[in-house]
Structures are given as structure tokens and as C-alpha cells.
Amino acid sequence: MQAWICDNPVGPQALSWKDAPTPTPKAGEVLVAIKAASLNFPDLLIVQNKYQMKPPTPFVPGAEFAGVVEVVGEGVTHLQPGDAVAAFAGLGGFGTHAVVSAALLMPLPGGFSFPDAAAFLCTYGTTYHGLIDRAALQPGETVLVLGAAGGVGTAAIQIAKAAGARVIAAASTDEKCALCRELGADATINYSHGDLREQIKTLTDGKGPDVVYDPVGGDLAEPVFRSIAWRGRYLVIGFAQGSIPALPLNLPLLKGASLVGVFWGEFARREPKKNSAALAQLAGWYAQGKIKPVIEHQLPMSELKHAFDLMAARQVRGKVVLTT
């Protein structure tokens, strides 16, 4: 097999494409021939040694991928060679093959393309867990999505609309806002200019959003939390802006609001039955055409470093997918 190897986590420039022995799956594992892998923000952090998980070197980055089962290990009965699968395994995706725990694999229904599947589990799993499970989003409520043109942001627009919510999508350019409207957003905010709080106030008739979906963090968090509705739920998804905000704790008190952490990977590990049910719902919505990953860039696996450059420059709408 071949893979991008991280020997020294100082950034994407240190990755190298190398030959490696094709691994043999152990009991409970599966060898997957990778057809497509997607880039997520934690993939950038992990090769910069900035992520909470710090794997020993050398390692193959790439948390999310899709492909075909080649070999099943002892005790694996629900998968067979030739099955199409998707995985969010944390590592191993940026190569031609990976060994994965069978429990982490999602069998793909017919009609699910490998690029879509590679861009599906993390963004849609995270977003469903956040909006439906953690925020208990109800039809008719208003959701404000920050970073709405990114991977999880575009998923949040689609899932919130599928759940019957009103969506206000906030992004950094007019072009990104236009994409959000194409995906079904009811209103948009370009937060690179104008008074963000005033725009939120106007679009919610002074009430504020019931749910805030925030994968951005940074200096947007406090003004947005100050704008949240009574009993609002503020979902902490990630910190794409780079800095982790600190909020005065009197704000949730005064608003009767909740600050809610969303860690889908840990949820999937601790509550696998609930996660499987969520993924089944999402697969159904995909088949019905209600949700579909936005893939702006589909590149060959050899262009991984260019893909990282696009992500670091915040030039990606939706997801970047790499194919073998």
C-alpha cells in the first residue's frame, strides 16, 4: 500500500508519500481499499500537533474515508469482501488502504457515491448529534449557523431545514452567503461587515435565535451569545477561527440559556446504538434528497498538501475530497 506519512507533526509540509506494508486485519477488524477521503479541520490540527489527540509517530492522517472491504478479520460477520463502506476512524484515511475496527464502519446503501460518503459521517454525524440530540431542535425554531458555508455549516443548514427549523446562515463573504441561500437558508448575514448583533436582532424580530451552531469560535462567540433567545442553546462545535473564546458566565444566567458541548466522536464511541440510529436517519434523508454533502474541490490523493493549503486559507465552501 501507499500512504501519506507524518513522521514529524510540524505541519502538512512535512508529510511524505511512502510505500508501507499492507496491514492484515486482526479479530474484529476490516481491511478497506480506500476510494475517497475527505479533509476535516482536525486533520490539519493533528499534523500540526495542535489537536487533543496526539498519536505517536509515524502515523497516517485522514479521519474520514470511504471504500471497499477487501479482507475481514476473525469474528466479523456483518461485512463481506466487496461491501462498500464509510468510516470515521480518526486516522489512516490518506492512503490506499486502512485497517479499521468493523464497529466504526457504516455499510453504504445503493446509490451512495464514494466521494459523498467520504464527506458524510463527520459533518452530518456531528451536526445531527448537535442539533437533534443535544439541542433538541423543534420545528419552527430559529437556528443561527456560523461558518455556514463550510463543511459542518452546510450540513447544519440542510439538517435544520429537514427538521423544520428556520435557518439564518452567517458567513464571511457575499459569495458564501449566496451558497447558503441555494442550500435553503431563509436569511443570511455577512459578518465581515455591519453590526452582527443588530443584524441578528432584525432577522429575529428582537427575539434572538433559539439555537446557535458555532464551529468558528473566536471573537464571534460573545456577541452572538449576547443575542441568543431566552432558553437558547449555544452549540460549541469547534474553533475554526483559531482562538478559543472565554464567555462571562453571567450571560447564560441572564438568558436562561445553555452552553452545550458537541463531541460527536466521543458520543459515537460511548453511545453506539444512538449513533447508529442517527446515521440510519441521515442515510434515509440522503436517499430522499434532503441532504447532500457540498464538495467544492475533488482532487487526487497526490494533491493532499494543496488541499491543506486551501483549508488553511479558508478557501473551501463545503468539503475537499481526495480520491485514489
Automatic annotation (TrEMBL):
Signal peptide: none
CDD domains tied to this protein: QOR1 (cd08241)
Domain Enoyl reductase (ER), first and last residues per copy: 11-322
SMART domains recorded: PKS_ER (SM00829)
InterPro entries recorded: ADH-like_C, ADH-like_N, ER, GroES-like_sf, NAD(P)-bd_dom_sf, Quin_OxRdtase/zeta-crystal_CS, Zn-ADH-like_protein
PANTHER family associated with the record: QUINONE OXIDOREDUCTASE-LIKE PROTEIN 2, SHORT-CHAIN DEHYDROGENASE/REDUCTASE
Stated name of the protein: NADPH:quinone oxidoreductase family protein
